[in-house]
Specification:
Oligomer: single chain
Low-confidence stretches: none
Radius of gyration: 17 Å
Helix content: 25-40%
Distance between the termini: 29 Å
Shape: globular
Number of domains: 2
Order of helices and strands: EHEEHEEEHEEEEEEHEHEHEE
CATH class of the largest domain: Alpha Beta
CATH architecture of the largest domain: 2-Layer Sandwich
CATH topology of the largest domain: Fructose-1,6-Bisphosphatase, Chain A, domain 1
Number of strands: 16
Amino acid sequence: MHGGLAALPMPEPTSPYRPVAESAARAAGALLRDHFGGDQDVDAFEAHDIKLALDVRSQELITEQLLGAFPDHMVAGEEGDTGDPGAELQWVVDPIDGTVNFFYGLPHFCTSIALRRGGAGGEILLGVIYDPLLDELWAAEPGAGATLNGKPIRVSPRRQLGDAVVTVGFSKSKEAMDAGFARFRDLAYRVRKTRMLGSAALALTYIASGRLDAYIEEVISWWDIAAGKLIVEEAGGRVEIADSPVAPGKLSICAWNGALPLAGTLAG
C-alpha cells in the first residue's frame, strides 16, 4: 500500500506569494534544464562538493523574480544573501540542490524555495520544490496540504521498518561521513532497502509523495530542507531537526512518514 496522490479536495492557496515562488522555481528550472548535460563553468572543486557558476546564475534569477515582486523581503540563499537582513519575510533558496548530480549528468536535482517569517528557524509559510527534468512541482502552505503538480499528496502508511525504503545523506567532513556510515549501517539491517540519492530537497518531496518512507542526515543546511520540511508535514509526515552533533552551525534531520517508529532518532 502506497501514499502518493490523495483523493481529497484541497483548500485553495491563501498566499499571494505562492504563484511568484512557483514561477521563479520554474524559471530557474528551465535554466538548469537548458544547461544539463553540457560543459559547466566550475567556481570551485571541493573534497566532496562542486560549486558551479550556474548555482549563482540560478539564484540571481530567483532573487530577481522574488524581490521584483516583493522588494521589502530578503533572500537568504546558498549562494549568499540579498536584501534587508531584518526583513520580517525572508526567502530561503537553494538554486541547485544536487549540484554534484547535475555536474556528473545524473538526472536527480531540483530548485528549492521557502518563505519564512523571521530568521533561521522561523515559521515556514510556503514551500516550493521543482524538478525540471521530470517537470514535477511540489508546493505546500500551512493548513492547506501538500501538492504535486496541483494534486494533493500523502505520505505512505507503512508502519514497520522492515517494509520501509529509507535514504541516508552524507555530508562532506570525515566526522559527518563517519556518523552517516554508522547511521546507515544501523538502518540497513532493519529496513527493506536503503538509497543514497544526493538531493535533500527531493528526498523530502519523495517522502511526502509516498515514494520514500524516511530520510536522515547528520549535517545539513536550512536552505536544503526549509521547503521540504513544510511539504512533508503538510502531506502528513513528521520532521525532527536538531543541531548537528558533528558540525557546529549546521543541522541534523530525520524526516519520515509519521507512522514508522523513528521519533527521537536524532537523540539516539
